[in-house]
Design goal:
The complex is a heterodimer of chains A (271) and B (285). With 271 residues, chain A is mainly alpha-helical. Chain A is 46% helix and 10% strand. In chain A, a hairpin with a 6-residue loop joins β3 and β4. In chain A, α1 crosses α2 and α3 packs across α4. In chain B, β5 and β6 form a beta hairpin. In chain B, strands 1-2-3-4-7-8-9-12 form an 8-stranded parallel β-barrel, surrounded by 4 helices. Classes of the chains: A mainly alpha (271), B alpha/beta (285).
């Protein structure tokens, strides 16, 4: 066994390896890991390219799992190319790939080749919301009968389930998402102009009441009400804000609906 | 520790519903631990249902046992998450690879990167395995890597490196027969010598998968993609592995372009046929 010390330490080798993997184009000039590599069959660039491509493929696969509708909308080749650009800017920071990809919607909005697909960013935001919702902690639901004993209900704060995500968009992203869940649907056209005419934003709640994550739309008042709950505002503040947004906002009906659908799961005194 | 036997399958999310609804006859399933780091996730809820009917093995990809920075925070944090999942899952086996993916706690490369087989690297991997086994409070299995790149500074043969780790740490070995086949082709070594050099008692589980072939600079390179059926050459090597190490728990792995479950079940039958053939032959002797 050769007892001579390696040219570089393991740590240095690993730094060089990562540096090469993160560099844009691998050339003999910019590569750090060249001298210590066995190049009898393939050059150091060729060898490093295998690992670089493999890492990018693994990261792309993780993005594909989080953003399946985006992949379907733009096609596999375009998606893979977009991911390569994205990965160049945003590299994973841990071994937990569930944490990776939150910046993808913003990236898509700014991605030159996708700018004409104006709805893409919001569809991606919806998919990220679904991803977060699917990872959320279990909801611990309160005993609602105790609400009857509260002295001043207006000063309570209502708590949303950990799986709740609120999404607003000026595009019909819920229909786009729904139509791309099944490949065998005949009618796969979404009329984007409808929303331009009505000028109404799409207001969505993403929730995981049981095993599966679901999406449903709410009124502007309900959306504001939930948004206030999310910000830990009091019941009174939430009603006021919701009514300002929607004059006919019916708090009793909405609250009952949200409790039944496990969107609101608990209450507490004002902090 | 629970015992697993026979030929298992890698559980992928595409098949969750199949395992819940039709409960195919598979003795055990292997999961990628990193896909279940949140025990409240939808995936974990599916797994909780599936594991009521199947023994589970936990296969990790991110412990980065070859990282030079032994006490690196990003790795330590990951190890703690693995522990939480392992404690929840109570798997029959826990494994990871002889590779690295994190350095200096800054960047993480989600791939199984090669290490030079030096004495320095041996000390590092030994410390990392010991740390993992201390935290997890159990033996882990270390899988031989598939590799494309070799280091001129390597002074130890890969199979001697693995055998040394087994002796130094008490870890077991997860023998990936496809990886041996792939690396033997890429680095031009004898796969049979590899098998013959590992202590018989060290190997506790076997992996089988398919590779892809790429042409790089005029050289045919085998890439460990886990995206197709097991090649004939790998089946032959598997037969030799069963002859040497016995009827060990064997896993059919498929990670990219995952096909219908029936395809995996078909591969499982082939592995079972080889085990039966070897056992029958050995009984005759």
């Amino acid at each position: 066994m050769n007892k001579s010390l390696p040219i570089s330490t393991l740590a240095q080798m690993q730094r060089n390896f990562i540096s090469d993997c993160l560099s844009g184009k691998l050339t003999s000039d910019n590569m750090l890991l060249t001298s210590g590599v066995d190049t009898r069959f393939i050059s150091a660039q060729g060898l490093m390219g295998i690992y670089k491509n493999s890492a990018i493929a693994n990261i792309t696969q993780a993005l594909s799992l989080t953003y399946p509708v985006i992949e379907k909308l733009v096609g596999k080749d375009f998606f893979n190319a977009a991911c390569r650009h994205f990965i160049r800017d945003v590299w994973p920071e841990s071994g937990n790939m569930d944490d990776y990809g939150s910046e993808f919607p913003t990236f898509l909005a700014e991605f030159e080749h996708a700018k004409h697909l104006v709805y893409l960013e919001d569809v991606a935001r919806l998919e990220w919301a679904l991803h977060l919702s699917s990872l959320a902690n279990n909801a611990i639901i309160t005993d609602w009968s105790t609400l009857a004993y509260v002295a001043d209900i207006l000063q309570l704060q209502f708590t949303l389930s950990p799986s709740i995500q609120l999404i607003r968009s000026s595009h019909p992203i819920d229909r786009i998402w729904q139509l791309n869940q099944h490949s065998d649907l005949q009618d796969n056209q979404v009329d984007l102009s409808l929303d331009d005419e009505t000028r109404n934003d799409i207001l969505l709640v993403v929730a995981r009441p049981e095993l599966k994550t679901v999406i449903f739309s709410v009124t502007v008042g309900e959306f504001e009400f939930l948004h206030c709950c999310e910000k830990a505002q009091t019941f009174e503040q939430a009603i006021t804000s919701a009514t300002l947004k929607q004059a006919d906002f019916c708090v009793e009906e909405s609250l009952r609906n949200f409790i039944e659908r496990l969107v609101i799961i608990d209450f507490k005194d004002k902090e | 520790m629970q015992k697993i036997k026979g030929v298992g399958l890698g559980l992928r999310h595409q098949h969750f519903q199949d395992f819940i609804e039709s409960k195919p006859d598979v003795p055990w399933l292997e999961v990628h631990t990193e896909n279940f780091l949140s025990q409240n996730s939808t995936s974990s809820k599916y797994l909780a249902t599936i594991r009521q009917h199947y023994e589970i093995s936990a296969h990790c990809v991110g412990m980065s046992l070859g990282s030079a920075d032994v006490a690196c925070p990003v790795r330590e944090q990951h190890l703690q998450k693995i522990k939480k999942t392992v404690d929840w899952l109570q798997p029959a086996l826990v494994s990871d690879h002889l590779s690295w993916s994190a350095s200096d706690g800054v960047h993480y490369i989600p791939d199984l990167l090669p290490i030079p087989y030096t004495e320095e690297a041996f000390d590092v991997v030994t410390k990392n395995i010991n740390r993992a086994q201390d935290v997890l409070q159990r033996q882990i299995l270390v899988e031989n890597p598939s590799s494309y790149l070799g280091f001129v500074d390597s002074t130890i043969l890969e199979w001697d490196f693995l055998a040394g780790l087994y002796k130094a740490t008490g870890c077991g070995l997860l023998l990936d027969v496809n990886n041996i086949f792939v690396s033997a082709h890429n680095h031009d070594f004898d796969a049979h010598t590899y098998l013959e050099s590992l202590p018989v008692d060290s190997v506790k589980e076997i992996h089988l998968a398919g590779y892809s072939i790429e042409n790089i600079e005029g050289k045919e390179v085998y890439i460990d993609t886990h995206g197709q059926r097991v090649y004939d050459g790998v089946w032959k090597l598997y037969e030799q592995a069963i002859e040497r190490f016995g009827a060990l728990p064997t896993l059919i792995e498929w990670d990219t372009d995952v096909p219908a479950l029936s395809v995996l079940l078909d591969e499982k039958c082939k592995a079972e046929a080889i085990i039966n053939k070897v056992l029958k032959h050995q009984l005759k002797l």
